[in-house]
Amino acid sequence: MVVALIAPEVIILWAMRQWFSARNIVKKFKKYGWGKSHAFLVLMGGFALYDGDQFCGYLWESREEIDERYWDLVMAHHARVQEVFRWHEGDSMDFENQQNHEGRVSDIPTLPRFQVDLVSEKELGEKMCLLEFFVANGYITITEDEIKDNLSQGDFISKSVAVIQTSWFLAQVVTRAVEGLAITELEIITVGFALLSFGTYFLWWSKPLRVRHPIRVNLQQRRCQVERPPGHTFLSVLWMICKLLSLPVVLILRFGYTILRAITYDFIRSLQGAGRFSSRLKDQPTGVWLTAFLITGAFGAVHCLAWNFLFPTPLERSLWRLSAVIATIAPFSFVTLGFLLYFLGNVVGVLGHILTVVAYIVARIALIVLAIRALRDLPPSAYQAVPWTRFIPHIG
Questions:
Q1: What are the average pLDDT values for consecutive 10-residue runs of the chain, which has 396 residues?
Q2: What is the DSSP track for 51-65?
Q3: How far apart are CA 120 and CA 117, in angstroms?
Q4: Fewer CB in 10 Å around end: N or C, the chain?
């Protein structure tokens, strides 16, 4: 919240980095029918490897430490699955209807739900990661529609409403300027936020709202066992009674766990590199940073629109102009200091970067404070509404 208020351009920088990273993931997984929603889900830590109830790690689009650690175990389990269900290259059998002479095979939760061309270990090479292996062999089968339905409920509607409201606000500001009505400094600041929000919504349109519980991929399935008729013994009845008696305690503990998890969830996942702002963009495109600096400069230049506005005091007008100039030139100064850091040494460049960031933050805070203080003494036309009846055809 603080970052979005003081430096909203950082949010759109994150959005651009995630958009580029998602595009790379889509290119890699396009042959499996993946889209932008899948890619964003990966970046948000939406797929996790579990060994029973033990969390092993998140599954990423490239080979990581978790891939090296569990690769052999996954390959061994996959070989057992092929052996149990008699899967051969180009030939799969419907295991749900298969029965042997001893009884029916018990359910295995994460086996492929559809027939796929199995990928052998020799065909994998060194480039395939665990995530791609699970997708290629049908262990992960979630579709883009399922992601939108289950993880983005109401997301399309909320984004559409936000875009419509933002467009309506900008239309009001433009109309007030055309009609010669006063525009407040706070409205100018909001215009800057509104313009940035359009870019953010465009880049994150296919991104799920949140991932509270990642999709579990089990490292080892339950072993195939012959189902036997259920029987009631003294121990089973006693265990059932104990479970019923402990149910209130379990519910209380589960409720407390849910509250604590909701409070600390995003923070912990951000430390693990799986937060909603994680991009995992290893190669930094020059265009991303260049666009970010240009957007930051344009965002600061929006505040210069209030250069000749009426302020309560001359001092506040001077402070507004100074802060607007600093907010406009700060990103370009940051680039210039980057060259100084390269040619003149670390001390000068690092000190310059620190001073630039501090000056930018102070200028942003000053603009917000001045805009709020200016509300105490507004011109009369600031209270007048836009006469929309002059622009919209209607029947009187």
A1: 78 88 90 90 89 84 79 79 57 43 38 44 61 87 81 71 91 90 93 91 85 80 43 64 69 53 44 50 70 87 92 94 93 74 64 82 93 90 82 65
A2: ETTEEEEE--SS--H
A3: 9
A4: C
Sequence-distant (≥ 6) Cβ neighbours of residue 381 within 8 angstroms: 180, 181, 182
Longest dimension (CA), the chain: 93
215-218 and 54-58 strand pairing = unpaired
Tokens representing 171? Answer: 């239309």
Using a 10 angstrom Cβ sphere, with 0-12 exposed, 13-18 middle and 19 or more buried, the burial of residue 89 is exposed
Contact, 138 vs 114, CB < 8 A?
yes
Could you state, in order of their start, the residue ranges of all structural domains in the chain?
2-152+209-271, 155-207+284-383
Q: Is 161 exposed, middle or buried (0-12, 13-18, 19+ CB in 10 A)?
A: exposed
CA distance 180 to 188: 15
* Residue 174, both tokens: 């433009």
Secondary structure (3-state) at 91? strand
| Burial classification of residue 325, based on how many CB atoms lie within 10 Å of its CB (0-12 exposed, 13-18 middle, 19 or more buried) | middle
Is 215 in a helix, a strand, or coil? Answer: strand
Closest CA to 299 of 4, 9, 2: 9
